């Protein structure tokens, strides 16, 4: 039992390093479309990205709601919340390159405001997290139990649902996107374990 904290921190660092490398590698490409690709396949891949980004964005809203209700959990939850914010960024459809003498047309899939520019350094409230939550912030905030332990357990369940959703989606994804979704599914599963393993009673 005395090694629980060290083990948890080590697992978190390992997951963060591995997922971070995969996120960088997967977002540098274009969903693996190096040859001729049908317009239908491109549209399907983009729709899958949007749906998966929505899954991670909803999870991000859950973190924001828990952090607002239980700010004393910030030290523990902020690193995980930051990782989920990076998931949203990685899943956002790539923006077309700007043309000389003018700007490219904005992507119709997601507004620029829905993409977090960087991971937050502290736990923001729902009112200051618009850059991370995007259009999802317009809906009602998720309900959060008054008991911190129950709130953390619900957050762990939300992480498991996100992991399952990404795992289901990767079956229908092109290779590059499938690799990204696999890394996110693994990261979310690890988050769920970390939250459950150290959940306050």
Description:
With 201 residues, the protein is mainly alpha-helical. The chain has a domain at 56-93 and 113-122 and 133-201. Helix content is 61%, strand content 0%. Helix 1 packs antiparallel against helix 6 (175-197), helix 2 packs antiparallel against helix 3 and helix 2 (39-69) packs antiparallel against helix 5. The radius of gyration is 17 Å and the shape is elongated. The two termini are 15 Å apart. InterPro entries: TAT_signal (IPR006311). This is Lipoprotein. Residues 103-141 have a biased composition (Low complexity).
Provide the descriptors you would attach to this structure in a database record.
TAT_signal; mainly alpha; Lipoprotein
